[in-house]
Amino acid sequence: MVRPPGRLSVADRECLAQAIKTGEARSSAELVLVIADSCGFYGVFGLLWPALAALLAGAVLALGAPQLAASRLFLAEAGIFAVLAALLQWPAALMRLVPPQVRRAHARHVAAHQFELRVEGRTPARTGVMLFLAMAERQVIILADSGVSAVIDGEAWRDIVDRLGAARRTGPPVDALAAAIGEILALLERHFPRDIDVRGTDGTEARGTDAGGALPDEIVELSAGSQSDRDIDREAGPKSG
User: Which domain holds residue 17?
Assistant: First the structure.
């Protein structure tokens, strides 16, 4: 698994958790922040591209210098493969050669899995939202439970995702994340203020001030050594409704 560009410090986690807690105090909806170091194993690309480059170089040499002995041709190909494979042990270089559609697909798969485990159906009125960051893939995804998606159009999330992506390129990632958290919770506050009545999936009314707190405020960080799905499910608790 590709290693992360950098993990959050304790101070960063506390800052972001406090931003979530402060914003949730004004809304009956809730937000979970999940940050994944990497969403897939990309080692195959560290072998695929060097192999293709070596074969291409061998073909060029065979055509351009037909007098070259087969043993020398093999050594040239092997040398090219070894050098490129060694270079692609550097995660930043490897990720640049992973096709964008592959990175997006991996990030979306992990995001959907985390959303199902940590957010979906775990609030009385299905008003949970997940902000997901795939660090190695450089992907930002926002997923909302049915109670929120029925009210807030996906275009609103797309604007926040675009601004977060732009901010991360020009400033500290934690500042960009805090700003995105503020935007998300401000939007949720507008549509799900804390003092309104919300209705649970079982049809019973749940007061806004009582409906909150079903999801944790702590930042979830995923790495190669992350806990199992069973542990996550036990930690998150049973789904509502």
Answer: 10-40+99-236
What tens digit of pLDDT does each residue of 63-86 get? 888 888 888 888 988 999 899 888
Asked if 115 and 129 count as a contact pair (C-beta separation under 8 A), the reply is no
* Neighbouring residues of 121: CB distance < 8 A, sequence distance ≥ 6: 145, 201, 239, 240, 241
Short-list 159, 212, 166, CA closest to 26: 212
End-to-end CA distance of the chain: 37
Asked, for residue 3, whether it belongs to a domain, the answer is: no
- Count, residues in the chain: 241
- Whether residues 106 and 204 fall in one domain: yes
Give the mean pLDDT of the chain: 82
**Count of Cβ atoms closer than 10 Å to residue 34 Cβ:** 22
pTM of the model: 0.75
- What total of structural domains would you count in the chain? 2
